[in-house]
Specification:
The complex is a heterodimer.
Chain A: E1 3-5, E2 9-13, E3 18-25, E4 29-37, E5 44-49, E6 53-57, E7 60-65, E8 70-75, E9 84-94, E10 97-102, E11 106-111
Parallel strand pairs in A: 2-11
Antiparallel strand pairs in A: 1-3, 3-8, 4-5, 4-9, 6-7, 7-8, 9-10, 9-11
Chain B: E1 5-7, E2 10-13, E3 19-24, E4 31-37, E5 44-50, E6 53-57, E7 64-68, E8 74-78, E9 87-94, E10 104-105, E11 109-113
Parallel strand pairs in B: 2-11
Antiparallel strand pairs in B: 1-3, 3-8, 4-5, 4-9, 5-6, 7-8, 9-10, 9-11
Classes of the chains: A mainly beta, B mainly beta.
Chain lengths: 112, 114
């Protein structure tokens, strides 16, 4: 089966930097995605790492180490609107197709 | 840009009733996914279709079924509804079975079972 572990809650100050870690145990692993979801809203894609290393997209960066089965999402210059849940998700293969399995999510609270 | 369209956005049903959710993927996307998300939970994968053929099944109850039609829209049919089926149901679509790791989610259909 697939298993992704991430902290349940993180609190950070506006303007600061926060890192959300994700460790995974999956078979048929192809890559790690990150999604943001505001309360009652749809998950929206932030970043995807298929290979080891850092991917940067504006204020958001994501890192993957396949040998350590570990990744993280880095949010810089935090803004109040960044308060949301963040999910890591593994793209895996199974029965000839692909699916995206989500972690339990990390609720980020940005405080003034 | 066109997004994933889901209907209805809200649905209230009684126990043991049936419900049908509809999803219209982004044009030219070849893969459709259904996810169920309970309050405070992560999205749980239910089922997916690639080029109108069922490609993978997750934790979809036997009471649920889904299909994708020739125009690529998909429907999730839920029968003998239970209180525990109350959740947000998301449809998502992607191109190339999500090879970029990016799924495009609709706004969801909120099902309440009384």
């Amino acid at each position: 089966g697939q298993s992704l572990e991430q902290p349940s809650e993180v609190t950070a100050v506006e303007g600061a930097i926060v890192q959300i870690n994700c460790t995974y145990q999956t078979s048929g692993f192809y890559g790690l995605s990150w999604y943001q979801q505001h309360d009652g809203g749809a998950p929206t894609f932030l970043s995807y790492n298929a290979l080891d290393g850092l991917e940067e997209t504006g204020r958001f960066s994501s890192f993957l180490s396949r040998s350590d089965s570990y990744g993280y999402l880095l949010l810089q210059e935090l803004q109040m609107k960044d308060s949301a849940s963040y999910f890591c998700a593994s793209r895996t293969s199974g029965a000839g197709s692909y699916q995206l399995t989500f972690g339990k999510g990390t609720k980020l609270s940005v405080i003034p | 840009a066109a997004g994933v369209i889901q209907s209805p956005r809200h649905l209230i049903k009684e126990k043991r009733e049936t419900a049908t959710l509809k999803c219209y993927p982004i044009p030219r996307h070849d893969t459709v996914y259904w996810y169920q998300q309970g309050p405070g939970q992560d999205p749980q994968f239910l089922i997916s279709f690639y080029e109108k053929m069922q490609s993978d099944k997750g934790s979809i109850p036997d009471r649920f079924s889904a299909q994708q039609f020739s125009d690529y829209h998909s429907e999730l049919n839920m029968s003998s509804l239970e209180l525990g089926d109350s959740a947000l149901y998301f449809c998502a679509s992607s191109h190339g079975q999500g090879i970029t790791g990016e799924l495009f989610f609709g706004e969801g259909s909120r099902l309440t079972v009384l």
